[in-house]
Write a structure and sequence with these properties.
By secondary structure, this protein is mainly α. The chain is about 65% helix and about 5% strand. The protein contains 19 helices and two strands. Strands 1-2 form a two-stranded antiparallel ribbon.
């Protein structure tokens, strides 16, 4: 089976003299491919296709705009803002959303004066725009912070950030619970959550998830609705919120607006997984690429299976001691789902793991996702479709 993104080289015609027609790979073709991979969260591929679309049609403002949005999502904020500015200044001044997204990116780069300037510009040029309410809310929040100076608004120094991070690493669980009762410690944590290093922010988010109190739940909810935080940290905070209140609704900042989600059904993204979770997926991909058996769609399916499994079982994900065993079991899930002729014994040899280990891990995943039942239903649907075609 070939790759799904490989363009077909010829098209049949009714004229005997014209056997082939070259496949035209125009700007729209590459834009559509970029959009496809963006939706699949394969951002590096999406970037390549969008850049190719721009090479072919450099004057297309929409292509530049989507590239800037994608760069923002991958934390290349300065580069994204240069493109947003190029769009409104040189290509299409009516794409006023660029000012809003430039404001968000400036906030993420801790340039709040510039962020405020772009928000005001957006309201000026697009008073009826789709993100007017969000822009006004952000400006109001910024003005409130400026009007009420406090210790929480004072910039945290690198030394303070390092000292707090050391303290969190050294204190035991009981000691942290005890310290959390102290108001000054809670204030230090809140400052660190917004102003500390990324590693400190992550430790504070994990701590809030362990404390299991209405206060920490509220702090995390305030955090995920903020546009000034990176998407990676937002996803980590959502993981902890899912642990604290899995059935609750929650407001988050997403794609330029504030939306309400249900934590139970909200899909979490791979970049925030623990290293071992990602290693399982990487090991599976490595082994699958050794075979010509798999087309690109199979890689998407196996990733979807693993993501679904982690989301359903979190926060009770078992400890992964040997990623190769889990990877072999994950590939076997794919094999079962598509009724492929590959056995657990063959996979055990390929991954260098025991047959019993694969069997146990597969049975565990199958109990959670019901792979066998889904595969059976898919096969029945396929056979019914083939029967209809014959008749």
């Amino acid at each position: 089976m070939g790759r799904v993104d490989r363009p077909k080289g010829i098209l049949k015609t009714t004229e005997m003299s014209a056997k082939i027609i070259p496949f035209k790979q125009d700007s729209n073709y590459y834009f559509q491919k970029g959009s496809y991979y963006h939706q699949k969260n394969k951002l590096s591929k999406a970037l390549l296709f969008l850049k190719k679309a721009i090479e072919i049609e450099p004057g297309n403002a929409e292509n530049h705009y989507h590239l800037a949005c994608l760069l923002s999502k991958t934390s290349r904020l300065k580069e994204a803002n240069q493109i947003f500015k190029h769009v409104v200044c040189n290509l299409n001044p009516e794409l006023t959303e660029c000012y809003f997204f430039m404001a968000i990116n400036c906030g993420l780069m801790d340039d709040l004066p510039k962020a405020k300037q772009y928000l005001l510009k957006y309201l000026q040029v697009s008073p009826e725009g789709e993100m007017v309410d969000e822009a006004r809310d952000l400006l109001a929040a910024m003005e409130e912070d400026e009007a009420e100076p406090s210790e929480l608004n004072q910039a945290m120094t690198a030394q303070e950030s390092e000292a707090l991070e050391r303290a969190l690493s050294l204190l035991s669980g009981e000691e942290l619970q005890e310290q959390f009762r102290d108001k000054s410690f809670r204030q230090a944590l809140q400052r660190g959550l917004y102003q500390g290093s990324d590693s400190l922010k992550e430790k504070i988010i994990r701590l809030y998830g362990k404390i299991h109190s209405p206060d920490t739940c509220g702090m995390l909810k305030d955090y995920v609705v903020s546009p000034w935080i990176t998407e990676r940290l937002r996803q980590i905070a959502l993981l902890e919120l899912k642990n604290l209140s899995p059935a609750e609704n929650c407001r988050i900042y997403s794609a330029g607006r504030i939306v309400e989600i249900n934590l139970c059904n909200y899909p979490l993204l791979a970049p925030v997984w623990k290293e071992k979770w990602q290693e399982v997926l990487n090991q599976t991909f490595i082994n699958m690429r050794k075979s010509e058996y798999y087309g690109e769609e199979f890689f998407e399916d196996v990733q979807a299976i693993w993501l679904d499994f982690v989301n359903r079982i979190y926060p009770h994900m078992p400890r992964i001691m040997k990623p190769q065993t889990w990877a072999a079991a994950l590939e076997y899930c794919l094999v079962r789902f598509h009724f492929l002729s590959l056995t657990q014994k063959e996979l055990a040899g390929q991954y260098g793991v025991s047959l019993g280990g694969i069997s146990r891990k597969y049975n565990f995943i199958n109990r959670v996702l019901h792979i066998d039942q889904k595969a059976y239903r898919n096969m029945l649907a396929f056979l019914a479709h083939q029967d209809r075609k014959r008749n």
